[in-house]
Amino acid sequence: MASQSQRMQTTETEASQDDLKKQERRQKRHLRTAFANGMMQGILSMLKPGDVVLDCGANIGDVAEPLAQTGATVIAFEPDPYAFGRLKKRLASYDNVMLHNAAVAVDSGTIQLMRTETFEDDPESGSVKSTIIKGGRKIDERDEASIDVALLSLPQIIRDLVAEHGEIALLKMDIEGAELDLLEHFLAEGLFDPIRLTVAETHENKFRDLRPRFAAMRNAVTEAYPITKVNLDWI
């Protein structure tokens, strides 16, 4: 049997390892924050009045508001009613912003929006995770817990805006898994080409069954476009 001193050493070693892991996680968070801040500042510096910007998954406006402050025309999409209410109130004073209480996808229609299992406990942080894609972690997929929301065709919106303006300055997507179908479609149809910069956060960590598709899509996009054109590591 292990002696008391051996057990104490084991406990101290485990505690030390836990502390090291916590420190590593903190460092990674700091690096991500620094990277995100730098990326955001770079994006803001390239925008000017007259530019067209699409913010898909605008949530409560933490990104949409700085984008609007550049003078660019911001078209923002947010399907969660709670987040959209906050977004609408926050951006009410900007006449260069157009808001849509809708999700985006390849085709238009209606769809069920699913929320986290603990949404009612903390709607603000919970609304960030609302999704139209089944299979996400800790998402309540029951029909009675879901909300019917409008679904707009992002490819058609892109085509219409390009026909009117010639190009789109920025497309930002943070849409909790729904980006996969869109990114695959954009790649197949060449829809990245008329967009000066596309940034997207991919959510393969939340949708285990979709990881092979996410990996294949990432590889294909990386081969086709430089990171200065299509960046899949948004904040």
TrEMBL record:
Record key words, sorted: Methyltransferase, Transferase
Segments forming domain Methyltransferase FkbM: 55-220
InterPro entries according to UniProt: FkbM_mtfrase, SAM-dependent_MTase, SAM-dependent_MTases_sf
Compositionally biased residues, Polar residues: 1-14
BP term (GO), one: methylation
GO terms assigned for molecular function: methyltransferase activity
Region (Disordered), start-end ranges: 1-27
One protein family per Pfam: Methyltransf_21
NCBIfam families tied to this protein: fkbM_fam
Protein name according to UniProt: FkbM family methyltransferase
Organism, as annotated: Donghicola tyrosinivorans
